[in-house]
């Protein structure tokens, strides 16, 4: 680490050495005063005028050096290059060497010319004393040491040698090792200082880097001594704990700092005691990591490391965003995002917790609510309005339930309520039914008003008997019972429902096997002209005879098939069977087959119909397809496209049960319809109720105005038939007044009988 020359040391160190030359100016004033005084004394004692000249030289050199010092002070040292520093070193060396040269000349002159012992002694003594000071003042420049040593010693050595005095010459030669020793001492001082400067600079650099790293950490840090006093604290710690004056915190007690934070209200009032206990556990080593909540907006996670000497390092970070994200995720996991109510899993967890906290057994209740006809809201108003309606329902549910029940959203438009019945109400059923009734009513959503009713199913049981895997099954069974009887009601679970449910599940499996095994069969109800002279078409009706239960009504097994999503299997069977049977009947008699809503959800039905026609060889014009208005509620555009495609292939399209659905008249104009089948509800009581008869007439007039063929269903009495025929209300009549549904073979017999009766009827007409 020895600096051989200025070029081998860093610029800043070189500058510091040169700057040291221009320091400690008091010694210069002392030196010039002593030098001038000495030479004045020599002049007075010897009368040699040269010493007065040397005094003037001392003054001139001193003035030059002072001017250089002042210029150096005024210079911008931060802008110095190495050349600039070398220039200033040279200026200093010139001044210092000038002073040393005057001393050397004065001493040599006294030895060689004056030859006065007192003058020689005084001059040499002052010169040697000045050489001693060279080390202390000029260690920063090797040039200055070398030149000053030579300037002082060389004139003395030359003068002694020229005096031809042996002892003086020998003694003068001893100045050479003296000068070398002086030079070596100065170099030693410079090397020592150089090492310390470099070491100090490295320590400063390390300290600066450490300070930079410490104060730019994303974590807060406290270093505490064994007495719990703060040794080190970084800027982030002060920011996180809302503490000022980072430097002033050193040597403060950590507990006092925390209490200071509490007084300045960054800690919630109820928390300081808990926080101090947690901190004490960290500092003592009983905890290595902990999460501390300082207030609702600040969560800090601390970790502690304890050293053998008792020093504790606390590192902590702000985990508030993480805690908020975790809470948000937990809320998303636990709560329904639309309504804000607990979801099913969290609801079950809350119920379990409440029951586990009960100190005594009691009756509890669970109610499942289903919004009636909610699908109609989505279809007519859109899903956005439907969602807003669910939000309004949830808000009313929470309001009506209050502290009496815990509400949650199960799925879709189903809600559930738990009645803990902590007050031991004996008539829990009445409380449940009252809440169900309170939920029905008008809901206003975005300038839309909805009259909403709820189908409910509930179960009551002892709190000890609660089983999460069973309660919803029982409540759903009760809900299913309500829907099967009358929407808008509320039913309690009864054990018989379970048996009926099991039986229904068995019936589903049997129906699936019957459809897959082709064990259904078809019957046909003829459609006559109003005068009964001709069968125009026959409606194909599916029948299922269960091997154990006997004949199952169509409204039962068709509904089950729709629930199971296998009604298309029934449709496929009926299409194939009806087309084969109709192909055996005399032309132009047609057959009519009903399609379900599920059939009209994809173009697969078109392929199915064409395959049935191709296999049977039946002409497309002899096949009628009936769709109910409920089929038109789902995806009207898709249904319109499918029916248009079928009609383009020559198949006749009929609307069945016309008048029982929504917006019936609008469908007559927008759909590819050929036939309107007026529902039996419009025929009932037309012989006694004039208003109902007028309504039937109006529908018939409208249909004829649209060039639609009219079929009236459910005509059961001759009086009804007579009135329809008299006012020409129908093109075709279907009902028990002509025939009940019959097997396919009976159709051919009925046609033959009508043909045989035709001549007799014509003869009667002629007569």
From TrEMBL:
Pfam families: EAL, GGDEF, PAS_7
Residue ranges annotated for the PAS domain, each copy included: 206-247
The keyword Transmembrane helix is assigned to this record: yes
Keyword Membrane included in the entry's annotation: yes
Family annotation (InterPro entries): Biofilm_reg_signaling (IPR052155), EAL_dom (IPR001633), EAL_sf (IPR035919), GGDEF_dom (IPR000160), Nucleotide_cyclase (IPR029787), PAS (IPR000014), PAS-like_dom_sf (IPR035965), Rev_trsase/Diguanyl_cyclase (IPR043128)
Membrane spanning stretches: 36-64, 92-112, 118-135, 147-167
Domain GGDEF: 362-495
Gene3D superfamilies recorded: 3.30.70.270, EAL domain, PAS domain
Keywords, ordered alphabetically: Membrane, Transmembrane, Transmembrane helix
Domain EAL residue range list: 504-755
Family annotation (SUPFAM superfamilies): EAL domain-like (SSF141868), Nucleotide cyclase (SSF55073), PYP-like sensor domain (PAS domain) (SSF55785)
Identification of the protein by name: Diguanylate cyclase (GGDEF)-like protein
């Amino acid at each position: 680490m020895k600096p051989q020359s200025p070029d081998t040391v860093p610029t800043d160190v070189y500058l510091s050495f040169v700057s040291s030359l221009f320091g400690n100016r008091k010694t210069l004033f002392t030196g010039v005063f002593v030098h001038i005084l000495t030479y004045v004394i020599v002049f007075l004692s010897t009368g040699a005028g040269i010493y007065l000249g040397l005094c003037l030289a001392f003054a001139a050199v001193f003035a030059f050096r002072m001017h250089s010092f002042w210029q150096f002070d005024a210079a911008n040292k931060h802008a110095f290059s190495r050349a600039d520093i070398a220039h200033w070193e040279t200026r200093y060396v010139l001044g210092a060497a000038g002073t040393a040269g005057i001393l050397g000349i004065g001493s040599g002159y006294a030895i060689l010319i004056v030859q006065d012992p007192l003058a020689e002694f005084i001059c040499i003594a002052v010169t040697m004393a000045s050489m001693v000071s060279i080390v202390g003042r000029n260690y920063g420049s090797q040039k200055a040491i070398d030149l000053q040593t030579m300037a002082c010693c060389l004139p003395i050595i030359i003068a002694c040698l020229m005096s031809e005095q042996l002892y003086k010459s020998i003694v003068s030669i001893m100045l050479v090792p003296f000068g070398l020793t002086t030079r070596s001492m100065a170099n030693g001082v410079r090397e020592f200082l150089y090492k310390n400067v470099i070491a100090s600079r490295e320590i400063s650099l390390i300290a600066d880097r450490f300070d930079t790293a410490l104060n730019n950490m994303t974590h807060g840090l406290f270093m505490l001594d064994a007495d719990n006093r703060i040794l080190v604290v970084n800027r982030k710690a002060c920011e996180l704990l809302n503490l000022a004056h980072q430097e002033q915190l050193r040597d403060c007690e950590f507990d006092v700092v925390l209490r200071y934070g509490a007084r300045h209200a960054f800690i919630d009032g109820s928390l300081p005691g808990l926080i101090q206990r947690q901190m004490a556990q960290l500092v003592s080593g009983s905890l290595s990591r902990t999460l501390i909540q300082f207030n609702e907006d600040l969560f800090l996670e601390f970790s502690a490391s304890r050293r053998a000497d008792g020093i504790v390092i606390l590192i902590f970070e702000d985990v508030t965003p993480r805690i908020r994200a975790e809470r948000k995720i937990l809320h998303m996991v636990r709560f329904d995002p639309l309504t804000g109510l607990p979801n099913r899993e969290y609801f079950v967890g809350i119920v379990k917790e409440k029951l586990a906290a009960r100190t005594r057994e009691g009756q509890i209740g669970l109610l499942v609510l289903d919004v009636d006809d909610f699908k109609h809201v989505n279809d007519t108003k859109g899903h956005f309005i439907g969602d807003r309606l669910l939000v309004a329902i949830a808000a009313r549910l929470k309001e009506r339930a209050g502290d009496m029940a815990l509400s949650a959203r199960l799925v879709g438009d189903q809600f559930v309520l738990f009645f803990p019945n902590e007050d031991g109400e004996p008539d829990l059923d009445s409380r449940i039914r009252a809440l169900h009734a309170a939920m029905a009513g008008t809901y206003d959503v975005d300038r839309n008003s909805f009259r909403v009713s709820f189908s409910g199913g509930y179960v009551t049981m002892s709190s000890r008997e609660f089983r999460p895997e069973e309660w919803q099954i029982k409540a759903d069974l009760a809900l299913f019972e309500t829907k099967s009887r009358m929407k808008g009601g509320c039913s309690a679970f009864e054990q018989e429902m379970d048996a009926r449910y099991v039986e229904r599940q068995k019936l589903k499996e049997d129906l699936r096997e019957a459809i897959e095994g082709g064990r259904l069969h078809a019957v046909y109800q003829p459609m006559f002209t109003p005068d009964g002279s001709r069968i125009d078409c026959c409606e194909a009706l599916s029948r299922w005879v269960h091997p154990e239960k006997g004949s199952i009504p169509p409204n039962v097994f068709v509904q089950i098939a729709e629930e199971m999503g296998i009604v298309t299997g029934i449709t496929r069977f009926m299409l194939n069977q009806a087309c084969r049977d109709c192909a055996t009947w005399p032309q132009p008699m047609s057959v009519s087959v009903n399609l379900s809503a599920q059939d009209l959800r994809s173009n697969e039905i078109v392929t199915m119909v064409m395959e049935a026609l191709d296999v049977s060889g039946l002409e497309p014009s002899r096949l009628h397809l009936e769709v109910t208005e409920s089929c038109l509620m789902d995806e009207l555009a898709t249904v319109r496209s499918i029916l248009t495609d079928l009609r383009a292939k020559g198949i006749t399209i009929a609307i069945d049960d016309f008048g029982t659905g929504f917006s019936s008249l609008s469908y007559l104009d927008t759909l590819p319809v050929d036939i309107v089948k007026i529902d039996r509800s419009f025929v009932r009581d037309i012989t006694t109720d004039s208003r109902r008869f007028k309504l039937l007439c109006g529908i018939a007039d409208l249909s004829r105005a649209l060039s639609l063929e009219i079929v009236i269903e459910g005509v059961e009495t001759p009086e009804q038939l007579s009135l329809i025929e008299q006012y020409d209300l129908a093109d075709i009549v279907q009902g028990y007044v002509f025939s009940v549904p019959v097997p396919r073979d009976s159709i051919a017999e009925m046609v033959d009988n009508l043909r045989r009766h035709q001549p007799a009827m014509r003869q009667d007409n002629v007569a």
